[in-house]
Amino acid sequence: MELKTRNLTLGYDKTIILEDINVTLPKEKVTILIGSNGCGKSTFLKSMARLLKPIDGQVLINNENIFNISTKKVARELAILPQSPYAPEDLTVFNLVKQGRYPYQTWLNQWSGEDEKAVDYALDKTGILNLKDKKLSDLSGGQKQRAWIAMTLAQQTDIILLDEPTNHLDIKYRIEVLDLLKTLNKVENRTIIMVLHDINLAFRYADYIIALKDGKVYSQGVPKDIVNEDLIRDVFDIQSKIVTCPLFKTPTCIPYQNYD
Ligand SMILES: Nc1ncnc2c1ncn2[C@@H]1O[C@H](COP(=O)(O)OP(=O)(O)O)[C@@H](O)[C@H]1O
Ligand SMILES: [Mg+2]
After folding, report:
1. CATH topology of domain 3-256
2. Which domain of life is it from (predicted)?
């Protein structure tokens, strides 16, 4: 499954947010989108999942315009976890995760052993099998986030899109969620495309970075090739020193305004 854009222009009503974007999201890699608040990261991700119609250009999935493919077929190829997903608080974890199976259901085939297996797999992978009968309202932030990720896993798609999946999580759970996504990528060859706020975690976990700025792709590539002080200054409007992380050998940004 390959996802790419062709002269993609996105926006709302007549306001253009991203213009003439041409990117190929590397297959079976972890790609992370970075950029300042409001630059269009969520807008980009929504369009990849067919949730937003382009003003111009196309999103292609295996060279086919995503808008020419049925909703259910798209949902069997890619799953998206939006920035602020909503579900009723009295829903149980099991019933949330079960919703990931909707693309496989027809009126003839309502719920199968296959669906049951996929849900169990997703609960197991995210370490929340023991929470399956709990209501969402009784979960911690980290547990709830894992339940949402489980829902996207139950969908069993090659491509998983996630918009700030570590938002509101403590550092321990942030690492846990990112390690889980990395493992899914490495062990099961899932293509992961996500937005992350924490640039240092982005540089650590990404195989490929796409930096957005002023409606364009500012730069894209492997973190160690593209991350430098100019990028941080231009994209985030802050001075910094880039050092190599002693543990992971990835670029690490130390931002500052002034120092003596
Ligand atoms: N549904 C919407 N209707 C109108 N404008 C929107 C909508 N969603 C986002 N925007 C605007 O589009 C721009 C990009 O938003 P977004 O993609 O959410 O940025 P990011 O995720 O990078 O913070 C912002 O100026 C935002 O206000
Ligand atoms: Mg966003």
Report:
1. Rossmann fold (3.40.50)
2. Bacteria
